[in-house]
Each structure stands twice: as C-alpha cells, then as structure tokens.
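We modelled the chain as a single entity of 75 amino acids. Its sequence is:
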Amino acid sequence: MTARPKVIVALENGPLLVDGPVVWRDAAGHERRVSGKRVALCRCGASSNKPFCDGTHKQIGFQAPAGQVLLPDGA
C-alpha cells in the first residue's frame, strides 16, 4: 500500500484544513487524537478553542491568502 501525503489547505481569510484523522501533540508532549474527516486549525490567532478554529476570523476581519502544502505521510 502506498502512503498518501497529508494535504494542508489554507482557506482564503480562514483556517487551515487538514484531512483526518489527526494526532495533535502539545508542547508538553501530550497527544490528542482527532478522528474526524477534517480538522480546521486556527491561523488568525483569535480562536478561543486553539489550536482549532471557532470561526472568530470572520468577526475580526482576518485576511490571508489561500494556499496548499503537501506533507509526507507520517509528518
């Protein structure tokens, strides 16, 4: 079976989208598994549910370009 790379998509003026499942590891090394099909990560810095997006970017007028990054599987 060939490993598929993870794709991170930056939405215009919005969050980063990562197809799941995802393992989130904090600075202390604690892991949290997110089993959903897609995870939205905050990139405006104003979410009250960091690192996840809560939609605050819309209220604060966050602006940033769209884009895409490919990560090797397991990265």
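As a brief sanity check on the tokenised model: The CA atoms of residues 13 and 63 lie 4 Å apart. Strands lie at 6-10, 16-19, 22-25, 31-34, 38-41, 67-71.
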